[in-house]
Amino acid sequence: MHIQRWIARREPHWKTLELLLDRAERLGLKSLSATEIHDLASLYRSVSADLARARTHQVGAVIVQDLQKLTSRGYAQIYQGTRRQEWHKVWEFYQSGFAQVLRETLVYTMLATTIFCLSALVAWWFAWLDPNFLELIVPERLIQLVRDDGELWMGRIMGDSPGNSSDIMTNNIGVCLRSIAGGLLAGIGTVYILVFNGLLIGAIAALVAQNNLAFPFWGFVFPHGALELPAIFIAGGAGLMIAKALLFPDNYRRLDAFKIYGPKVAQITFGMIPMLLIAGGIEGFISPNPAIPDSLKYIIGTVIFLGLVAYILPHSAALQAQTLKQLVKRRFNSAEDASS
């Protein structure tokens, strides 16, 4: 290989790559056009090959060092820049994409919420009237603790907060994933989990109310329940969506219906995981903490729930405003056409 001729032939490519890298490092990859990004990747590969050839033929320490710097900078922009873009997409999803999916699937979430709340109401009613019904739903040790000792069981969670918090997170995630997967059983599994948990919370609500412990009990539930319960309802709605695709695919083939609903279910699953992790941390460290007054726990839970609502509603309000604006514009145009 004639070294001087090889350097003269390859040097313009090195300079082009250096110029592209200078701009990408200064202004970001978004400053490059699609063609320039393609050229950047292609030049990076060719310069990497040049570096290997320069080392093999002992072109010179200066050339090798310069090529080494170019390839290192190219690697950082291409691969680390891609990672930054991926994290940016994740951030965008949690910033607005998840809220969009929740709005699109709100009917299913509300249906799951209704199933849960009706089950809780039925359990509360029967447990209030019949102690035998209460014993069918609530574990006996909890009944004895509340009824005989006049105590709640939540304070015991504080003994090992990190371990308990981890267990709570794992359990909550498991409940939600089973709710979603239950849709594959024609929705029977999803409905069972919603009804079972609704009956349990309703019966316990009656038990603590009968023994004048409702205020501290709901003080415990409010902080983490503000995220945990909506996550269960959202997961239940996703399971019902799967059941709909299976049982009532409308005008679609079942496979096509799954292709339509499947991505939304996947986005819901991905989106609700942080909700459950945060709820588990709150349930392990804040909800059972006797140093925090119950009244403050109510406030914390209320603020968290309003934050969740605010996460969704502003986007929804903006969407409604945009729709209204388009409707007014269409009517104005129609009136203008009629007058002309």
From TrEMBL:
The chain crosses the membrane at residues 106-127, 168-186, 229-247, 268-286, 298-321. Keywords: Membrane, Transmembrane, Transmembrane helix. It comes from the Bacteria. InterPro entries: SpoIIM-like. The keyword Transport does not apply. This is Stage II sporulation protein M. It comes from Romeriopsis navalis LEGE 11480.
